[in-house]
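Input/output pair, single chain:
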Amino acid sequence: MRLKSTLAVSALAMMAASPAVAETRLGAVLSVTGPASFLGDPELKTLEMLVEEVNAQGGINGEEVVLIHYDDGGDANRARTFATRLVEDDEVAAVIGGSTTGVTMAIAPVFEANEIPFISLAGAVVIIDPVNPWVFKTPHTDRMACESIFTDLTARGLSSIGMISGQGGFGTSMREQCIDVAGDYAIEIVADETYGPRDSDMTPQLTSIAATDRVEAVVNAGFGQGPAIVTRNFAQLGIALPLYQSHGVASDAFIELAGDAAEGVRLPGTALLVADLLAEEDPQYAVVTAYREAYEGRFEEPVSTFGGYAHDAFRIMAQAIEAAGSTDGAAVRDAIEATAGWVGVTGEFNMTPDDHMGLDLSAFRMLEIVGGGWSIID
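Output:
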């Protein structure tokens, strides 16, 4: 006890003797471990890399950026505790995080109550619809994923589908959104199955879908390991129908998990996954290439869509703080809302007070897995 007290006094003395360094504190609550680690791990690595880069260039408004992050392990209750800690103890100016929809919805009220700008990295449309004055997001919404998939189905002359959806926050939300917009694309959902987060075999649900009259394609709303299991079971059953996944699995990790069964699967994804296929005149070519080279050079692993969401969130937040000229919450919030014509890894962002995401369907590329890699569907 005496040693601990002595250390505390020494630390205080050193702080008193050293001049205070101006800093901008940014918070992050991410699922770095646990079932959603494939989201949170590249998100944290990206944020750390960008913070170092910005600080090497002089920080934001001349202040050093300090990233204070917590790993929620995918647990919404833990995440809410960390969100409160970021506000009350760490006194952060803004927050990036919420790797999953469930976590985002748990922590957003904390930042709203304390008027702290928050950019989520999760997919469900409920995060920004209805608009929350303090909450933004960078990923495309699940509703947009449905619209992109249905547009491709229509182009292929297909109109009746079977759905199989995860029962987590994202899967549940995307299923609801697909049902809601299906009529706008003359798509009929003739089979509707779900699976739990711990299910390891979706053969019964897929067998039921395949036996349903008039099913022309199957759409899986979900993320994590579930869609990989669905894809493997789909191939094992020999179902000769097109299979679509969501942008929730848009990474090389999905191909690795699904193996050869992933061949022919289509999904809406970002330009980042097909960086090598982009023309140099593509508006996203420069930013996508720069991020990929920096990330892969630093961490010696492939970039992922999810790290890209963190990239865009940090860049948008940093330029908003710079434009505001301070870390005043309302000023930063207004500056985020003023983001217009900004091209990121995910797409071109045009935010307004009524649109706290700012992306349209042009930010999606319809991709198909061919030969164990990604290809663009024209």
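The CA atoms of residues 347 and 363 lie 5 Å apart. The first helix runs from residue 2 to 17.
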